[in-house]
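I'll show a typical protein example:
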Amino acid sequence: MRAALPLLAALVLSACGDQAEPAPVPDKNAEAIARIAAAPGGTTRWPPDAPAFIPQYPGGAVTAASGGNGVVGDTIVTFNTPDSPDAVVAFYQAQATKAGLARISALSTRQSTLFSAGDPATGRGMTIQAATRGDHTAAALSFARGRAPG
């Protein structure tokens, strides 16, 4: 056993030596944004038919927008802004309150903030998630316009 200790110590110490830099991890957000923009009806402009309760974020640069699939919502829009995630979410939270949408969920961490609101009677709803990405905030907004009357 004692004879094995120097060998074991040498192996442990050799593992502490210079190690190569880890391979870069692909930006899955960038891939998702590219898929949204490339989807049928996808664009990099604010949806012209967005409901009044979902205005474009002031100064936000749209990175992708596309019609929904019935699961996420009618529309999803991603955008970047120099503002904080909290400021972005507070803006859309105020819009939801003005529109009479009830809070469904809210979550905040050091780098990311999420807010969701809706009205089950009309089918209108929205979810905003904003996160720090380097020197800017990246946001994803999904919204449902609501059901047609009748």
